[in-house]
Amino acid sequence: MKAKCYFCDTELEVVLHTFKVGPKDEPVCEECYTKTLNRRTAKAQEEKGETLG
Fold it and tell me: Residue 13 in contact with residue 2, Cβ under 8 Å?
């Protein structure tokens, strides 16, 4: 049985990335991992802009 992406249920050939969900690390695909990183970066930049402005 192959691992599936936690977010989009895509079957993963190899688990390269994981995402911490509660006490577990769940596998995620490259696309969902990139989206998650981009959202975190955007949120951090938004918070920086609010505190400096």
Answer: yes
Q: Provide the token pair at 4.
A: 């599936």
Contact (Cβ atoms closer than 8 angstroms) between residue 27 and residue 18: yes
Write the pLDDT tens digit of every residue in 24-40. 999 999 999 999 999 98
As given in the structure block, the two tokens for residue 36 are: 């998650």
pTM summary value: 0.73
**Best CA proximity match to 33, nearest among 41, 22, 45:** 41
- Name, in order, each residue with C-beta under 8 angstroms of 41's C-beta and a sequence gap of 6 or more: none
Measured from the Cβ of residue 6, the count of other Cβ atoms closer than 10 Å reads 16
